[in-house]
Amino acid sequence: PSQFSFTSQGSVAQNTAFTSNTITLSGNGFSGGTAVLTGDSTSKMSINSGTYVTGSATVQSGDTISLRVTSASGAGLGRIATLTISDITDDFRVTTAYSGGGGQGGGGPS
User: Which of 13, 15, 32, 83 could be a cystine partner for 60, CB 3.0 to 4.6 Å?
Assistant: First the structure.
């Protein structure tokens, strides 16, 4: 297929499911293949608005795919779902927000 791209999400809430943008498979000479999902254990994919599943699935030109990842339970941590179809790969990354500052500053002279 033609190169596809998922938009990463940053500064997200912890322990929350996030869904990627939806891509449509296309490209000269692409009639079909196998979509293989790897990455974090919470990674899932949906083909043509179907149920979110893990693993791999047969896809064809015109199919739509979105990915879902549940964010980590700590501040500033990332989770990644990677979709590969033929020789084309892209990641959907979700990174939790860092804890707010406002604590004890330091580093300056006293």
Answer: 32
